[in-house]
Amino acid sequence: xxxxINLILLPISKSSDNLSNDSLLYSENILDLSWxxxxxxxxxxxxxxxxxxxxxxxxxxxxxxxxDILYKLLKIYSKKIxxxxxxxxxxxxxxxxxxxxxxxxxxxxxxxxxxxxKNNIKAATAIGKIINIQSLDTNIINLNKLEVVVNLNKLNIxxxxxxHKYQTTYTITDIISYNDYEKIIQDYLKLSEYMNFSFINxxxxxxxxxxxxxxxxxxxxxxxxxxxxxxxDEKHNLFIEEYDDCDILEKKLNELQxxxxxxxxxxxxxxxxxxxxxxxxxxxxxxGLKNLIKTTKR
Length: 298
Hints:
Blueprint: E1 3-9, H1 33-46, E2 47-55, H2 64-74, E3 81-85, H3 92-97, E4 100-104, H4 112-126, E5 130-136, H5 137-140, H6 145-153, E6 159-163, H7 178-189, E7 198-199, H8 200-205, E8 218-221, E9 227-232, E10 238-243, H9 246-264, H10 290-294
Parallel strand pairs: 1-2, 1-8, 2-3, 3-4, 4-5, 5-6, 6-7
Antiparallel strand pairs: 8-9, 9-10
């Protein structure tokens, strides 16, 4: 029986404002779709691809033809395609082909950028697209919490999730502690009854949304036509380690999973682990939010 993986495609270089912490790679290359077709087939022989997402702040800059071909290829392996974007641009082919759209949103309403994002959200929901908002804890920590909920209620979205900027990258250094992140989640849990949308953090903690995050099983395909895994260096900076072929990826993923299993073997919360895409092996610190899980009524 094949093991499950989640696949994240990074078709084009990352902008530094990508909230998801996913496109942690800097390159001017664009993913070659002929290479992707061949290597997706190889990946599918080794693994069961349970989820595919296309990520990166600049993906809307790619052409309509590129997305038409990309979606046709991806639909062979997954019935549901998720995109993650800053939504500054409304690319019709990108939007029309996506089943779910995750949008980075920072609540700075007076900026021209946020006006564009709001207008694009309205345009997408008007044609029936599912819009989920994601926000970094560092962007909302000082905001009035009730005002945040009121503003989100006006956007006709399906859900909201607060993401933890849990580690630095080479260009991103402003982070808050796990304790502060957990406090933010707890504060918004108290306001969840006023939300006209699903609060994903609440559903995850209550196990309404089940997670298959342990051991880590997220695989990347980069703009350099390579496979990759999300890792931390000795300074705890986040990066994507690239591999030339599927066999090397399989070996490295097995090593990563075995190491995590060894570190976490005695944790009673690993079945509900929220570590998601990566684990800091150098620091051996838990980013699965077990303290928040154990304080939540399940």
